[in-house]
Amino acid sequence: MLKVRIIPTLLYRDFGLVKGERFDSQRAVGSALQAVKVYNLRGVDELMFLDVTATRQDREPDFALIDELADDCFMPLTVGGGIRSVDHARRLLEVGADKVAVGTGVVECEGLVEAIASRFGAQCVVAVIDVRRDDDGRASAWIRSGTSATGLDPVELAVQVERAGAGEILLQSIERDGTMIGYDLDMIASVSDAVSVPVIASGGAGTYEHMVEALGSGASALAAGAIYHFTQQTPMEAKSAIAAAGYPVRR
Amino acid sequence: MAVVDYGMGNLDSVRRAVQLQGSTATTTADPQVISEADRIILPGVGAFGEAMINLRERGLDTTLTHQVLDERVPFLGICLGMQLMARSSTEHGNHEGLGWLDCAVVKLEPADTAERVPHVGWNEVHPAIDSPLFHDIDNDRDFYFVHSFHVATDDQDVVLATTPYAGGFNSAVGTRNMFGVQFHPEKSQQAGQILLKNFLTWKG
Questions:
Q1: Which of A45, A88, A116, A120 should we substitute to test contact with B (largest number of B Cβ atoms within 10 Å)?
Q2: Quick check: is B186 catalytic?
Q3: SS3 content of chain A, % helix, strand, coil (to 5)
Q4: Is there a contact between B81 and A5 (Cβ–Cβ < 8 Å)?
Q5: Nearest CA of chain B to the CA of A121: how many Å?
Q6: Across residues B173-201, what is the average pLDDT?
Q7: Strand (E) positions, B7-89?
Q8: Which helix (H) or strand (E) is B170 found in, with range?
């Protein structure tokens, strides 16, 4: 049986890892290399590494950094941030990424998802959809690390990226990011129902119970950051809790 | 030992994992170097058609076929590298493969609505026969998969292992000196390391 994936998210900015709230107020939480080494030792299912300033600073992905991290990463690694061309994706895969996460590029670079998928296969393209709700609760997709509105409906965008060839969707809630108040279950359910590719839930996990709720809403995998940085909870314990709730996990 | 570089992805991950087992891996696209290697790994992520074009452009299809079928050099194909051992694939059109095994690469079809494609994540591998590749690996050990296509065959003799997804698919195939695995041993932590060690120490 396919296991539920517990995916720690590492946000990279300038020279190290950060974590904040609502895509903002980030503070330093340590070294990227150290985090990769620790998670590799603990046998986590997969890692999500997102360079959160690459796009805004108009930078390319930091290929040398990923090369260095991959030296200690004998588990699946998804890398995002600043990917705007097939060549960016190719170079990341060459140095050790297993999948590339494309967010802003989905909207700004026409044909990018199709081009990466047709060259490297759908399975290595993760489309990132960052969602913000307005005061009326209406959801829309944002890009450039939550600084630029697209006006696009997240569910429609999810259907579009699946059609374009994305193999997974990383669905992030901007206003729940770092708050640890729980995932946006309605959004997870809406997107999961609309597509047939796996949906990775992200944004808001504060307890193992939140993770179980997201699975009940249709998520295939659970990404989380703050819960591991700022509480005593761990990916290993999360698996035990999820197994106790009746979902298959890897031991 | 040679890790074949044909412009299709995760070469460094495979090279690192092999080195962790104490083997020296040369990442190369040179047919001459591959001809002299005592073992060959064909990794790869990507589209089948593009991969075959890349192999042919570099003259690697004939070199690999000669080394594996005639010289019987131990060979391991990983993910796309496994699929290329088949006769054909229907990924984005119809493509001819290396044709070493009487297999066809076809899309995974979900067995129910709960199953999603691509098949991404950790899933069990059940050896179908007592293959040296799976020595010291438990029967239901999880390995990491990330793929939309799988290797189908009517020739049960080449099926080394299966995985319960999309109605069950062949997660390892092979015969004699050649092995292919659909999962990624280089990303499957301890289980993957044991499997790579089994391949690298296999005496034939």
A1: A120
A2: yes
A3: 35, 25, 35
A4: no
A5: 4
A6: 97
A7: 26-28, 40-42, 75-78, 88-89
A8: strand B169-175
CA distance A135 to chain B (A): 33
pLDDT of residue A154: 98
Q: CA-CA distance, B64 to B71, in Å (whole number)?
A: 10
Chain A residues touching B164 at Cβ < 8 A: 1
How large is the average pLDDT for residues B60-89?
98
Residues of B whose CB is below 8 A from A46: 121, 144
Task: Determine, for residues A98 and B192 on separate chains, whether the beta-carbon distance falls below 8 Å.
Answer: no
Residue-wise DSSP of A22-57: TTEEEEEEE-HHHHHHHHHHTT-S-EEEEETTTTTT
pLDDT at residue number A182: 98
Cα atoms in the 13 Å half-sphere on the side-chain side of A80 = 27
- CA angle in degrees (0–180, nearest 5) for B15-B19-B22: 155
**A121 phi-psi bin (left φ>0, alpha ψ -120 to 50, beta other):** left
The answer to whether residue B9 scores a pLDDT higher than 80 is no
How does pLDDT run across B85-126, given as a tens digit for each residue? 999 999 989 999 999 999 999 999 999 988 999 999 999 999
- Tokens 């020595």 — which residue? B135
**Cβ atoms of B169 and B163 closer than 8 Å:** yes
pLDDT band at B192 (very low <50, low <70, confident <90, very high): very high
What is the tens place of the pLDDT at every residue in A118-146? Answer: 899 899 999 999 999 999 999 999 999 99
List, in order of start, the domains of chain A with CATH numbers: 5-244 (3.20.20.70)
**Encoding tokens for residue B52?**
């075959």
Burial class (CB in 10 A: 0-12, 13-18, 19+), A129: buried
Asked: is B2-201 a CATH 3.40.50.880 domain? The reply is yes
Kindly list the domain boundaries of chain B, sorted by start residue: 2-201
Burial class of residue B121 in the structure, from the number of CB atoms within 10 Å of its CB (0-12 exposed, 13-18 middle, 19+ buried): buried
Give the model's pLDDT for residue A34.
96
Residue ranges in chain A whose pLDDT is less than 50: none
Secondary structure (3-state) at A125? strand
CA distance B158 to B162: 11
The answer to whether A4 and A251 are in contact (CB under 8 A) is no
pLDDT at position B11, please? 85
Start-to-end Cα distance in chain B: 15
Indicate the DSSP class of residue B66.
I
- Report the complex ipTM: 0.94
- Reference B76, options B44, B122, B50; nearest CA is B44
